[in-house]
C-alpha cells in the first residue's frame, strides 16, 4: 500500500499539523508514505521525518495544464491519495474529469473546516468533487453529520484530531513564580475572537502576562488587534509571537492556557494544551470542548463575561497540581496515537478492499 498525503503548503496551521503528525505516525509504523505540496516549501516541512519524500508541484497558475500534468504524474504512483483542505480538493478534482484519477486510486478527502457551525453552505464544485472521492473524513461529529445529511458521499468517517506529545527536557525550577504566564494559540483571523481576549487581558491582574502565538494570515485583522492593544495601553501585559513553528515545545513555559474562538471543529489547540497537562479556559465550541467538559466542566465557558473567565482562571491556578494528574490520564485515554493510527489504517484498508471486489 503506497500512500500520499496532499496539501497546498505546510505552513503553520491545524490541518498542516495533522498531516505532519499522521504522516510521521504512518512512517514510524513502516508504511510507505509520501507528501505532495501543490505550492512550495513551508515552515513545517522540517518536522517530517527526513526519510519521508516531499514533492513540490510549485504551481503558479491554477489552470496551467503543465502543473496539472506534473501533479497527475506523481499521484498515479499511489494506491491511496489522502487530500487535506477544500481548496486542495478543488484543484486535484480537475484531474477527476480529465484523467479519471478517482477511478484508478482510492481518493480520500479529509475535511478540516473549522466554521461548520456557522457556515453550512458548500460550493457546487466542492460538492461534486466530494461525491467522486472514495470517502469523506471529517474531524468532528458536526462535519460528518453535515456530510451525511447532504449525502455528499456514501462513505463518511470521523477521525478526530490528535496532538503528539513532545519530550521537552524542561527544568521547571526556571519558572517565575511571581507572575502568571498565560498562553493563547491561534493564527490571526476574525473567528479567533482576539478582540475578546484583549478585554480579558485589560481586566487581568497586573502580575498576569499573556503570550499569543499565531501567524498574521489575515493581515488586516492582525493590524486591528495590534492597534487595539495600543489603545487599551496593555503592551506591557501581552507579547505576540508570529514565527513559532511548533508551539507544543513552548507550552511548558506557561501556567495556564486560554482559547477564545467562537467557532471551532476541534479546537486542536485544546488537545495541545492537554498534551502538556496544561489547564485552560475555552469557549464552549467544537468536539474537543464537548469531550473535555464531561471530565473538566471547569475548563469550558458558556458565555463571554470577562469576570467569569478571570475567576475561573484563578480557580484553576489554585488547583493546578491536582489538575495536571487528571489531565494526563484523560489525555492518554482519549487521544491515543495508537488508536488514531489504527482508525486511519482501517479506513485505508476498507476502501482498498472495496475497490478489489
Account of the protein in words:
- α10 links the parallel β11 (256-259) and β12 (280-283).
- It is globular and about 60 Å long.
- By secondary structure, it is α/β, with parallel strands linked by helices.
- The chain is 42% helix and 17% strand.
- The relative contact order is 0.11.
- This is Glycosyltransferase.
- InterPro entries: Glyco_trans_1 (IPR001296), Glyco_trans_4-like_N (IPR028098).
- Residues 178-324 form the Glycosyl transferase family domain.
Number of strand elements: 13
* Shape annotation: globular
Strand order of the largest sheet: 3-2-1-4-5-6-7
The largest β sheet comes out as: 7 strands, parallel
Number of helices: 14
Radius of gyration based on Cα positions: 21 Å
Secondary-structure element sequence?
A: EHEEHEHHHEHEHEEHEHEEHEHEHHH
Helix % is 40-55%
In round numbers, the mean pLDDT is: 93
What structural class do helix, strand and pairing data support?
alpha/beta
Quaternary organisation: single chain
Question: Low-confidence segments, ≥5 residues, pLDDT <50?
Answer: none
Domain Glycosyl transferase family: 178-324
Protein name: Glycosyltransferase
Pfam families: Glyco_transf_4, Glycos_transf_1
Organism: Winogradskyella marincola
Amino acid at each position: 500500500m503506497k500512500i500520499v498525503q496532499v496539501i497546498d503548503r505546510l505552513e503553520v496551521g491545524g490541518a498542516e499539523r495533522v498531516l505532519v503528525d499522521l504522516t510521521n505516525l504512518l512512517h514510524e509504523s513502516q508504511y510507505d508514505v509520501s507528501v505532495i505540496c501543490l505550492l512550495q516549501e513551508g515552515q513545517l516541512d522540517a518536522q517530517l521525518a527526513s526519510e519521508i519524500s516531499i514533492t513540490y508541484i510549485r504551481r503558479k497558475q491554477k489552470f496551467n495544464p503543465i502543473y496539472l500534468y506534473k501533479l497527475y504524474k506523481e499521484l498515479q504512483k499511489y494506491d491511496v491519495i489522502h487530500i487535506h483542505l477544500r481548496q486542495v480538493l478543488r484543484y486535484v478534482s480537475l484531474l477527476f474529469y480529465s484523467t479519471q484519477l478517482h477511478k484508478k486510486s482510492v481518493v480520500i478527502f479529509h475535511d478540516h473546516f473549522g466554521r461548520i457551525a456557522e457556515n453550512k453552505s458548500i460550493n457546487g464544485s466542492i460538492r461534486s468533487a466530494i461525491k467522486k472521492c472514495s470517502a469523506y473524513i471529517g474531524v468532528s461529529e458536526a462535519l460528518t453529520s453535515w456530510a451525511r445529511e447532504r449525502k455528499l458521499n456514501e462513505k463518511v468517517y470521523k477521525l478526530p484530531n490528535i496532538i503528539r506529545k513532545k519530550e521537552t527536557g524542561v527544568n521547571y525550577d526556571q519558572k517565575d513564580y511571581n507572575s502568571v504566564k498565560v498562553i493563547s494559540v491561534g493564527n490571526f483571523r476574525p473567528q479567533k475572537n482576539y478582540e475578546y481576549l484583549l478585554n480579558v487581558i485589560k481586566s487581568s491582574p497586573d502580575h498576569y502576562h499573556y503570550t499569543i502565538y499565531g501567524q498574521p494570515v489575515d493581515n488586516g485583522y492582525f493590524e486591528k488587534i495590534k492597534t487595539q492593544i495600543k489603545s487599551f495601553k496593555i503592551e506591557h501585559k501581552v507579547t505576540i509571537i508570529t514565527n513559532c513553528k511548533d508551539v507544543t515545545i513552548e507550552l511548558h513555559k506557561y501556567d495556564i492556557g486560554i482559547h477564545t474562538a467562537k467557532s471551532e471543529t476541534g479546537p486542536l489547540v485544546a488537545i495541545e494544551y492537554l498534551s502538556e497537562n496544561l489547564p485552560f479556559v475555552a469557549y464552549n465550541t467544537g468536539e474537543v470542548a464537548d469531550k473535555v467538559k464531561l471530565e473538566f466542566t471547569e475548563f469550558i465557558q458558556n458565555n463571554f463575561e470577562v469576570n467569569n473567565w478571570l475567576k475561573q482562571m484563578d480557580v484553576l491556578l489554585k488547583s493546578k497540581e491536582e489538575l495536571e494528574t487528571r489531565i494526563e490520564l484523560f489525555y492518554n485515554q482519549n487521544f491515543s496515537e495508537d488508536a488514531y493510527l489504527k482508525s486511519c489504517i482501517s479506513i485505508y484498508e476498507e476502501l482498498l478492499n472495496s475497490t478489489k471486489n
